[in-house]
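Co-fold these.
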Amino acid sequence: MSEKRRIVITGQGQLAPKAIGVEAYWDLISKGESGISPISTYHMGNFRLTHGGEVTDFEPRKMVPNRKSLKVMARDIQLVVGAAKLCMDDSKLLEAEIDSTRLGVSMGAGYINTSVQEMRFAVKGSIDEQGKFDIKKYAAEGMKGLTPLWLLKYLPNMLACHISIQYDAQGPSNSLTTGDAASSQAIGEAYRILERGDADMMLVGGADSKLDPLSWSRFEMMGLLTKNGCPPQECIRPFDANSDGFLPGEAATVLMLEELEHAQKRGAPIYGEVVGFAASANGSPIIKKIDSRAQAVAIKAALNDASISPEEIDLIVAHGIGVAETDRLEAEAIQSSFGEKASQVPVTSFKASTGFIGAASGGVGVVTALQSIKNQMIPPTLNHESKKPKCDLNLITGQAKRAEIKTCLVNSFGLTGQNACLVIQKFEA
Amino acid sequence: MDKRKNRKRVVITGIGAVTPLGHDVESTWQGLKDGRSGVGRISIFDGSEFPTKIGGEVKGWDFKKMYTLAEPVRGMGRNTQFAMVATQQAVADSGIDFQKDVAPERCGVYMGSGEGAVQFDSFMSLIHETSDETTLDGGHFIQKGLDFFDPITELEQEPNMASMHIADALQIMGPNQNCLTACAASSQAIGEAAEIIRRGDAEVMVSGGAHSMLHPLGVTGFNLLTALSTSHADDPTRASRPFERDRDGFVLGEGAGILILEELEHAKKRGAKIYGELIGYGSTADAYRITDSHPEGRGAIAAVKLALHDAAIEPSQIDYINAHGTSTQVNDSVETIAIKESLKEHAYKIPISSNKSIMGHLIAAAGAVELITTLMTMRDQVVPPTINYDNPDPECDLDYVPNKARSHKVDTALSNSFGFGGQNISLIVKKYSE
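Predicted complex below.
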């Protein structure tokens, strides 16, 4: 008997643009529809772009079990706690007798910006007679305009902390903050914790909301936002010859990772198995220096970890954010790690539908893989008209495509250098 | 399944630190042994009107002058600069030539680093200029932000920048993570980095943490939480008093600690100097409250016990405890409870000290620096003191090595780190022997 513990996925919860729950998400992306809509959470004024991937119809008071705690949660945290509730309901874990010290949490979080709306209350009392902001006045008066627990709203570990408190998860608690690779790394790190026996169940995933004015401003100054911008539902174009940037979005995914025997003993639903993980670094933010070697290192190491060859991959859920340079690098990494097969293995990117969702990418990527496995269907990459030169991938476009899918590779390649790859497989006993 | 079977052994072969006590490990260690406080009035920004006016600053910082590992990158935050200089020291100390001795994809980075500082004056002024009485014009803010902020400086605030720059400077492509679990972060990073080597996924991991929350919004956050000491504005060196009766909060510090973790056989083959072996790692959550630790120390006790189990040793084998000891009322009494419950009667015989009494609380970087000083304790067989210990607290009745360093035989030591929100990490290091 092999000593290696097998790790399966026994619960899924997700909040994505225009999609509460994984079914709604699958319905949207398998029909080739966009989640991009007018921004309602912030007043966009006269800015040239007014749409993004917003989680519409999200009612925190309905989805966050402990309503009192809502006021100490930034939007990223509210979203992830909502997704965690969906996941817990789905996993049926609350109906089982479990050892809470064997339940852990591992989340990927973004750099959570302090709310500019909220900070207004502190700025108000900090303006001197010349009408300028004055730090002395701020320290003596202005900062009292903030709630006492202000700091805790924005700490990236609070995603995992709120979830651990809500579900009495006393096992390991980790919070990864590696940009767009964060939730894939969080899932991978939890996979390792379960593999080595430090827990039997882990709530994993992550969240990010990039729709606040400071995030928009940062993306604009870095030249990452779509140049032409209209119509909004058609402007994010992963791997397209005319891709010119993205619109920001937000999302949260929480999955239950569980050791197989533990899951079987309690009769848990099993949606798939995690069979491979690897992380690497580009060694430089790719928006500064161009190199796809480390991305290829992550792909190869993940396949190696799963003990499978490139031929066995039925679908690549790409990072593909619609920025010309980063998409080209990802294509190059796929080409160098898959060799001749690179132009045959189906590839899809969901980012045209969700927008740029930062640290939430990997979680949504894994859900995309699980749903593709379940439905034996590949959702299309939206807005694709013509192939980018040297980007000879088998990109699924137009309509969803029926396919036999057993094994998926999920890529998360960060703008700031970190990479993570996961291999997700159909569960076979 | 016994997870301790068939796994690789992990040793520490290089260390580097930048702290309020000095710009390297030796000056930091000397300061600790002497009980020389690194806390003073805040000078890096105008802190004169904040409820807390003191902190443990890294003094006389001149990055460009000190950094030779690679081309200095413009716009790096203070925290990342500390990380880079500490990495430079740790790499030199280890003697590893990263271009020759190792395969780039078999070397990784696992940091527990914090975010950088917001461009405070620009940020606040921009909010002022784009708001009217009732609302903020988001579109106006976005557009005007282009004039107010420097894009590189904005990007460099991301908490993963230190781990990325380290990989870049050393040209290594292996696993690259950053966890940010508040005050437990760098201890957790070291524990997880060790697990990567134990599993055989890398031969060398650069691990540790860097953080500076000594900036207006950092002080704001902790002042609003009333977590900082406010009582010794005129006598800053006396403010941090872990386990002492009159403690009233922690003192913010800043800095970085970096360790080179290496697979034992790899280290032996190249004849490396070995500071110690990482033999135990325990990680748990309180799952209690975001603001308070569990009153009975539930998660902390479990973390210590898991680390002992992982190390396959008994409480009686622990010779020294480097405590989390923050100088807040709750932490220090709960930590005392946890030590007593997890180590039973041995708790009373083991010297315990808090480095935070001397250098303040380095937040995400605290655990890494404290593990380094624990290795120094093993090297020199000297336990650094807990200073400002004037009056015992009846709730804290262990041996905290008050005020003066002590010679003591230390072969195996425990280092604790507990993070805001309930993450508990315990690490155990041991003098290396075959």
